[in-house]
Write a structure and sequence with these properties.
There is one protein chain. The N and C termini lie far apart (62 Å). With 95 residues, the protein is an alpha+beta fold. It is 42% helix and 14% strand. The protein contains three helices and two strands; from the N terminus they run H-E-E-H-H. It has a two-stranded antiparallel sheet with strand order 1-2. The chain is globular and about 55 Å long.
């Protein structure tokens, strides 16, 4: 084999076991402590490992299909995070 990546499978709207990604997400969160809100993380998964291809700290094309596919309003969730952050910061400054 020529060691090039090639597409062998494409699964849309798959409900994977997200626990497989929790350690990776913790590493990303520690590496980028200012990453906040919606971020697209592109992965390459093989049978042996999960590799991060890139991290997009902004809305990406996936945003358009998430609400339709999963009934999740990502923009609303980010606004809720912002409101919670503001409330938390106001509380912290009063202490």
């Amino acid at each position: 084999m020529n060691k090039r990546y090639h597409l062998t499978e494409c699964v849309v709207n798959h409900q994977p076991d997200f626990s497989l990604y929790l350690d990776l997400l913790a590493v990303i969160a520690n590496a980028f402590p200012d990453l906040w809100g919606y971020a697209g993380i592109d992965l390459i998964e093989t049978a042996e490992q999960i590799l991060v291809l890139e991290i997009n700290p902004r809305l990406t094309t996936s945003f358009a299909g998430i609400e339709a596919a999963l009934a999740v309003n990502v923009a609303g969730m980010v606004l809720q995070l912002l409101q919670a952050s503001r409330t938390s910061n106001r509380f912290a400054t009063k202490l």
